[in-house]
């Protein structure tokens, strides 16, 4: 017997969570099924809308001003500016005061671990004091055993890029003896607990860290640390460091695994619970059943410990990710969407998938399903494949989220739009 719900969302990343919440707020009974861990934990935690145009112009000051000029088929062109704004508004509601940027439509410029500046629309409160538009000088602090963040190098690159402030970098030993290559969560948990246990006789880890940093301060009014300042209590950790240092403290976004990404994941999954969405993780969707006419999905097949179980629904949302997340798959024979076998347009010659130049126009970056304005995937002739299936997030084609810095915004806008339409059509 099939497990039944009104809306079934396949995929547990930002697009899937947004779609599930959006559908639930229409009053629909919603279930989210995800196989792998959400990609949120590998992301920076920054929420980009549009940092650069498809032609490479940017960084953009106002991403909304560029939406009308996007090419036909781009996900933003499919859903419209209202969905972009609604997706951001939903995100603001779910994250409450833990994120900033909703006071303006303009992009903020955030320094990253490599000393680059990234345009983004929403950012964790923990990075707010580090905005590149802030003219106050900054000291960047790295840790000897945290090889992912070279503070002096990041500072030098910011200065070379013409940041409107002077940046200096310093590297200190973390107050607790750690292994040669500790996980970022190790630093965070030690700062959360604020005690070292057997690894240190007594005292506060936070206070000991302040003692090591304060000797490097030379008039700077803000200090940036790698984004490891706590997992369970990041606001408390940062507040203690600020009070003892006497300056503003901010986090510099890091690569995966990302503490801001993990914090965001926790908050969004708490929101799913609060909205009454049922969540199942660890079980892959391996196929689907279509109705007699072939124009509707009746159920998906979920592999549960080797037994295939049907999950039936009135409406489905596909949010499994792109090439990186295996929501779009490829081999020497071609490119496919593996759950519903939706059409993915691509050149038949594999050598036309990419450009010879490393930073050229790589067509594979835009592979994905091609939806109508209700985000229903279309076949190669432009006809809707299934009336009750919608797609959201990186599984969509016709845009290059990495080059545009638009991945999170597309996930929010299309997730909101797909989820709302799914819920309203139950």
Automatic annotation (TrEMBL):
Annotated organism of origin: Halorientalis pallida
Keywords annotated in UniProt: Flavoprotein, FMN, Oxidoreductase
Gene name, Swiss-Prot/TrEMBL: glpB
Positions of transmembrane segments: none
Listed name of the protein: Glycerol-3-phosphate dehydrogenase subunit GlpB
Keyword Transcription regulation on entry: no
Residues of the FAD-dependent oxidoreductase 2 FAD-binding domain: 7-410
Pfam families: FAD_binding_2
InterPro entries xref list: FAD-dep_OxRdtase_2_FAD-bd (IPR003953), FAD/NAD-bd_sf (IPR036188), G3P_DH_GlpB_su (IPR009158)
Enzyme Commission number, as recorded: 1.1.5.3
A single GO cellular-component term on record: glycerol-3-phosphate dehydrogenase (FAD) complex
GO MF entry, a single one: glycerol-3-phosphate dehydrogenase (quinone) activity
């Amino acid at each position: 017997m099939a497990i039944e719900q009104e809306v079934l969302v396949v995929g547990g990343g930002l697009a899937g969570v947004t779609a599930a919440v959006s559908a639930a707020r229409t009053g629909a009974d919603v279930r989210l099924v995800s196989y792998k861990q959400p990609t949120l934990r590998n992301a920076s935690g920054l929420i980009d809308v549009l940092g650069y145009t498809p032609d490479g112009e940017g960084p953009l000051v106002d991403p909304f001003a560029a939406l009308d000029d996007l090419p036909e088929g781009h996900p933003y062109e499919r859903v419209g500016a209202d969905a972009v704004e609604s997706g951001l508004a939903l995100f603001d509601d779910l994250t409450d005061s833990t994120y900033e940027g909703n006071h303006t439509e303009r992009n903020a410029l955030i320094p990253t671990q490599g000393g680059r500046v990234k345009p983004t629309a929403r950012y964790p409160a923990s990075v707010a004091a580090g905005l590149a538009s802030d003219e106050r000088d900054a000291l960047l602090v790295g840790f000897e055993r945290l090889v992912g963040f070279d503070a002096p190098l990041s500072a030098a690159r910011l200065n070379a890029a013409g940041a409107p402030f002077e940046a200096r970098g310093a590297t200190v030993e973390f107050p607790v003896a750690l292994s040669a290559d500790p996980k970022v969560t190790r630093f965070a948990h030690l700062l959360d607990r604020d005690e070292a246990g057997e690894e240190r006789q007594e005292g506060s880890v936070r206070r000991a860290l302040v003692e090591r940093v304060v000797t490097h301060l030379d008039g700077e009014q803000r200090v940036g640390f790698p984004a490891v300042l706590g997992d369970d209590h990041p606001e408390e950790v940062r507040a203690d460091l600020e009070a003892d240092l006497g300056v503003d403290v901010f986090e510099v976004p890091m690569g995966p695994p990302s503490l801001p990404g993990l914090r965001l994941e926790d908050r969004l999954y708490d929101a799913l619970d609060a909205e009454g969405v049922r969540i199942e993780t660890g079980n892959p969707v391996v196929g689907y059943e279509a109705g007699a006419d072939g124009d509707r999905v009746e159920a998906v097949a979920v592999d549960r410990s080797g037994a295939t179980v049907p999950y039936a629904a009135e409406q489905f949302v596909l949010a499994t990710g792109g090439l990186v997340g295996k929501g779009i798959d490829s081999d020497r024979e071609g490119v496919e969407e593996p759950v519903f076998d939706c059409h993915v347009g691509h050149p038949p010659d594999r050598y036309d998938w990419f450009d010879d130049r490393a930073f050229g126009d790589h067509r594979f970056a835009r592979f994905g399903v091609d939806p109508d304005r209700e985000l229903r995937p279309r076949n190669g002739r432009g006809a809707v494949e299934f009336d009750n299936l919608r797609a959201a997030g990186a599984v969509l084609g016709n845009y290059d989220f990495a080059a545009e810095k638009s991945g999170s915004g597309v996930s929010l806008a299309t997730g909101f739009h797909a989820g709302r339409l799914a819920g309203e059509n139950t």
